[in-house]
Amino acid sequence: MADESIQMYAASTGGTESNLASVSIPFDSIVEGIQYTHMANLDAAESSRFQLSEIVTQLINSNGATGILMNSQILAAQVTAVGLAVSHAEGYLPVNLRFDAGATLYLHSVATAGVVGTFMAVLYLRRVR
Question: Which of 10, 23, 42, 70 lies 20 to 30 Å from 105 when distance is taken between CA atoms?
Fold first, then answer.
C-alpha cells in the first residue's frame, strides 16, 4: 500500500517540449503505480504524446531510449461535424520502480503544432525502509 502520492501536471501547446513539469521524489521509495489522464483537442490526423521520464529532455521519437517510465499517445483519425474532437486516454499502470530520495522525474510532450493537450499523473510511492 502506498505511503504517499505525488501529482504531476503539464499543458502543451504543440511542437516538441521538454521538461514541461518535474517533481523530486521526497524519500527513498518504490513507485508502485501511475494513474494518468491525457486529453487534447484534436482535428483529423493530429496527435498528442506525453512522456514521463528520468531524463531531462524528451526521447519520445528515439529508439533504444532508457529511463522512460511511460508514454501516452492519442490520435484523431477522423474529423467530426465541427472539425474538432476532445480525445483522451486514462488509466492505471502498476509498476515497481525504485528511486532514491531527490531523484527527479520529468514530463515531456510532442504534438502536432497548435494542438493543446494536458497530462496529469499521480505517482503512488511506498517508503523503502
Answer: 42
In degrees, rounded to 5, the angle at the alpha carbon of residue 42 between the alpha carbons of residues 52 and 11 is 40
Cα(118)–Cα(76) distance, integer angstroms: 15
> Which three cell numbers, joined as nine digits, stand for 119?
497530462
Number of domains in the chain: 1
CA distances, 93 to each of 21, 26, 41, 47, 79 (Å): 20, 21, 24, 22, 30
Question: What would the pLDDT profile of 91-100 be if each residue is shown by its tens digit?
Answer: 999 999 999 9
Question: Rounded to an integer, what distance in angstroms lies between the CA atom of residue 57 and that of residue 20?
Answer: 10
Structure-block grid coordinates of residue 12: 502543451
Q: How large is the C-alpha radius of gyration of the chain?
A: 15
- Cα separations in angstroms, 68 against 1, 58, 76, 93: 23, 9, 25, 13
Global model pTM greater than 0.85: yes
Domain that holds residue 83: 4-127
